[in-house]
């Protein structure tokens, strides 16, 4: 307490630590946001209901549908601003002049004739105070009527309404009208589908949870996914109703028990399944229906796969990979998707808490291991996947090339080893087998003879005959496998059952997986592992029992991953409700014969700013050409014959500095590239990209200039 009885403010919670004498006042810190950006608010149920009831009209592929206002396909013919404003001003002056001439009698008094014919004589020139007032009102009212008629005619001629809509109305920050409550039959917050199926009690419980602010967007999506399982017959109605009545909005939880991600960086709409990446630029090269709209991706677009090409620092990871991965993780929590995100350690692919499984290859603290054979028990399938990973980049890069010889070499060893040991060999053991270690091969032979495995003995004999012959691929396979047989990976790729290996066979479940590749010091090994994961992914999604679950592989850097088998695998993903997201620094990382097939197999193609002209040429070729209107303007000098004309032309030359000319405009239809290589290399601003889209139904959007920062 001070001497005057007041309390010293330095001891309050606002300033718990006294400042030193003479220290400057520190600015107040801004308040911490109540929630992460893009997350529907939790405390008040009205906010969630407003989000759920927001309009989401059908739109073209890639348009952010949340609150979208459709635009016409063609741009309306708008009058240029200068011509519009000038015409409105001239119309006003003409109307003012006409009214002034009428008022002053310069045009006569004929415009009073209608009043004289209609108005009775008793209404005109009345005596007395009341009559004079009536006469005054009659004549002034008629003058006002004529003035209004002139004003309406002038406004129509001068297009004042369009001037108001284009220049005046946008400057008024009018409060948007509140959204009207939907009809109960069409209200998504009433869960009418459940009521019609006889689950009225469950619907009432969900309505109460939403109104109390206990439901969020992931809960809504997860329960809708469970309800789709009931309608398809995978789950019973009684089980679903019992879970909802017991747990409310927390019913049908993800196996992890999580109901949301720790943080969100992008804007998501789980009703439509979209994630917003940015906004399309109001540019003449964009179709009018897309200009100024949000740009979003969803499973219906990712099902055709996405390829993003741009140099380092162009925003591939931050603006494309992580928002898409974040969206797929939310879909996994809702039971809609399974996602595998592959990238270098520390690449910014989200926190570990956002994933169920994090495989840190080369990190001794990693809880999970990676199954080298993809969880299969078939030696031939395991050999095909492993051969693609080890030497897929060495195969003939033409579309018909493959690695069947390498697959045969591995199958001749994997089959006998599994028959004897009941498992596949570890990396050191497989390397010894490929090198032809006599001790290990002799043990296999004896064990197979004792078991009477004649067919496998023939496989082993064939392998021993080929050892050391020219053209034998075992040495190449052993050299590539040596990149994984390093001390840093000694604890990984275990096949003895002592570790916790992750297998891509788990994509039958809504799992979230992140695989960190050891980029530093092990670049070649990282490329082998990336090819391994891609090969296992394409093989696993093809044999899934439940294809209603969308599966996606996000590969942050696909350098050295694109092979003939990889292109064929990507082409088959669309029919299996799966897709991939690939990024490249340049198309030079893909063999020249595979660039065309790769761009043809991918449905969504993105060229980021900073692209090289030769990369731009590949995109320009795959995007093709379109018919456009070309205007040729020709200025022809006018020659005057008469002395007066020559004098007038001389005066115009002095005033304008140019000779008098006549302009001729020729309009013709020409076929031009949608985006040329030069425009892609030099016309895309930083933070922007050109993106073409195709969904699984075959609908497509032409190349769009997109601001990834919007």
Notes on the protein architecture:
With 710 residues, this protein is of the alpha/beta class. The chain is 41% helix and 14% strand. It is built from 23 helices and 16 strands. Strands 1, 2, 3, 4, 5, 6, 9, 10, 11, 12, 15 and 16 form a twelve-stranded mixed beta sheet that branches. Strands 7-8 form a two-stranded parallel sheet. The chain has a two-stranded antiparallel sheet with strand order 13-14. A hairpin with a 4-residue loop joins strand 1 and strand 2. The radius of gyration is 37 Å and the shape is elongated.
Write the layout of secondary structure elements.
Elements: H1 45-53, H2 81-103, H3 113-118, H4 128-158, H5 160-168, H6 192-196, H7 200-211, H8 217-232, H9 237-247, E1 267-269, E2 274-280, E3 294-297, H10 299-302, E4 306-309, H11 316-333, E5 337-344, E6 357-360, E7 369-370, H12 379-391, H13 404-421, H14 427-435, H15 438-451, H16 454-466, H17 474-481, E8 501-502, E9 512-517, H18 523-541, E10 550-555, H19 564-573, E11 578-584, H20 592-601, E12 604-608, H21 613-623, E13 625-637, H22 643-656, E14 661-673, H23 677-682, E15 688-694, E16 700-707
Parallel strand pairs: 4-11, 4-12, 5-9, 5-10, 6-9, 7-8, 10-11
Antiparallel strand pairs: 1-2, 2-3, 2-16, 12-15, 13-14, 15-16
Keywords: ATP-binding, Membrane, Nucleotide-binding, Transmembrane, Transmembrane helix
Biased composition (Pro residues): 27-43
InterPro entries: P-loop_NTPase (IPR027417)
